[in-house]
Amino acid sequence: MDEAADEILGLYRRHAQAWDEARGDRLREGGWLGRFLALVPDGGEVLDLGCGSGRPIARHLIGQGRRVTGVDSSPELIALCRERFPDQDWRVADMRTLALGRAFDGVLAWHSLFHLRPEDQEAMFAVFAAHAAPGAPLMFTSGWNRGVAMGEFQGERLYHASLDPDEYHALLKAHGFKALAHEVGQDGAGAAAVWLARRT
Question: CA-CA distance, 170 to 182, in Å (whole number)?
Answer without folding.
Answer: 13
